[in-house]
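Changelog note: in this version the structure field was regenerated for every chain. One regenerated record is shown below for reference.
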Amino acid sequence: MKRHIALLGSTGSMGTQALQVIDQFPDLFEVELLSACSNCDLLIQQALKYKPNTVVIIDEQHYEKVKHALAKEDCKVFAGLQSLTDCMSMNSIDIALSCIVGIAGLAPVYAAIENEIPVALANKETLVVAGELMIQKAKEKSVPIIPVDSEHSAIFQCLIGEHDNSVEKIILTASGGPFRGKTVEELAKVTCEQALKHPNWNMGNKITIDSATLMNKGLEVIEAKWLFNMSLDKIEVIVHPQSIIHSLVQFTDGSVKAQLGLPDMKLPIQYALTFPRRLPSEFPRFSFADYPTFTFEKPDFETFPCLSLAYYASKEGGNKPCVMNAANEIAVAKFLNGEIKFMDIPKIIEKALTDIHFSQPKTINEYLETDKATRIILNSLQGNAE
């Protein structure tokens, strides 16, 4: 039987790649739901091609356009984030693939878990902001959360078959981004255009800037903590510029397992959708002959303080990771809009973590309230955080 997929965030980089994977297996997958934030034109094109049961446009000002364009289709059209969250109660969904960027993915993913829908998770912020709550609910409902991030997919794959074998540490690899080896003085002068030129990966703007600041790796550290029930002192980051080894697991006997592949997100997407099977694909193959040398180096925590800030926020717990995430989203948006400089990003995050008081949210709404309050405070700032 076909698996009916709810694709949350279908028009972004991850969403479009997910549809390419689905295209390879027309006998296995059917698109049940498509959602997008504001790219209504591409959403309409996707809906006409895949003919889903339901389409949701988050930005409500585009609702009439989408509804009119799909009027002749056998398709329900809704608008707003709450509508997407409500749609996670559809009993026709077999798996929800969350490719939404940012805090917007939080409520729909939680709703999917509540409704016992398995989740393939590409949205880092869901576990960064409310990891404890998400994992508790997933255990309560016996709902699998299968990671799609290349690093977490690699760890997940390395752990398959290990059962109760003890893990000594997990090692997340980082490309180092476009500014690996740069000094603080050099980073003070970089432009948005330079920051968006990732050496290996083709990603959306927000994630690409996160990679340049190493915040992306900080988010992954927090995500790994919850996904794999691992303390922070057992999560290590190593810079691997070739981006071929996607992550590693070291066991207590000293053995290390790694997962390798070309830097292409379609492979972890396919693995998440077809797990536990490995199905043939037409993706390009990795060849050792093309990569005769692998190199590794320690991350520069001083030059790229966002990574340290992520470790700090996670150690503090409570609302701190949520505050950090909101501050990062605001700071990255300001940088992309030309309002601040590159090195102002960690300054804004640090200011938020310092100024906003600690609390212990217990519900999704309380996390969302923390996120909203952080954004109100930071959006009132002019320029940098000093």
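Spot check on this record: DSSP finds 16 helices and eleven strands in the chain. The first helix runs from residue 13 to 24.
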